[in-house]
Amino acid sequence: TLKAGVLAVQGDVSEHGDAIRRAATAHGRAVEVVEVRESGVVPDCDLLLMPGGESTTISRLVEREGIDEEIRAHVDAGKPVLATCAGLIVAASDANDERVETLDLLDVSVDRNAFGRQKDSFEAPLDVEGLDEPFPAVFIRAPLIADVGDAEVLATWDDDPVAVRDGPVVGTSFHPELTNDPRIHDLAFFETLEVEA
Ligand code: GLN
Predict the structure, then answer these.
(1) Could you give the CA distance from residue 131 to residue 143 in angstroms, rounded to a whole number?
(2) pLDDT tens digits along 38-91
(3) What's the CA gap between 43 and 23, in Å, rounded?
(4) Superfamily name and number for 2-190
(5) Is 27 a catalytic residue?
(6) 56: CA distance to ligand 1 center in Å?
(7) Which positions are catalytic residues (predicted)?
(8) What SS3 state is found at 195?
(9) How far is the C-alpha of 46 from the C-alpha of 156, rounded, in Å?
(10) Residue 58 CA: which ligand 1 atom is closest?
(11) Residue nearest atom 5 of ligand 1, based on CA coordinates
(12) Residues 6 or more apart whose Cβ sits within 8 Å of residue 46
């Protein structure tokens, strides 16, 4: 059984648990979802989700609880992470905001709340590298990916990158857990995981 950690200090946690269960079922894999609120949990996880929410709060609590070092070790060990929206902000190399201590898991810099300024929240069909059909992407006060260093761009919207991969880490500006479509969780985890349950 795979152990999936969902960072649960703040944000839309249960939706990610449901999404990972759907993706696992589609791959015939058993998965146990655990919520991460304190240190000592991530080291046992095969994969990790960093949900949306409020990035200033998430980064503060992750640091206070000492989970930051464990997440870095998870990525250093080559284990997969999916970071969405505020999760992407926390995972980035720079958030251009001194209130957010980023974990530098992904070589991108982001601007909080800059994407989709004209419309706070919207849904758009997105062409994603590796998916045959467009993905229904839900954007909610999404971060703009301002600079892409060594990361690979998986999708763009209006010429701006909105999904990126850097080694075992996939980051999205949008919320793949808010639709019933498991393909982004699929892409982030089941196409990279080599551990057999
Ligand atoms: N605007 C939020 C932030 O900057 C992110 C929004 C979200 O996760 N839906 O932290």
Answers:
(1) 23
(2) 999 999 999 999 999 999 999 999 999 999 999 999 999 999 999 999 999 999
(3) 22
(4) Class I glutamine amidotransferase (GATase) domain (3.40.50.880)
(5) no
(6) 9
(7) 85, 175, 177
(8) coil
(9) 29
(10) 10
(11) 86
(12) 2, 3, 4, 79, 193, 195
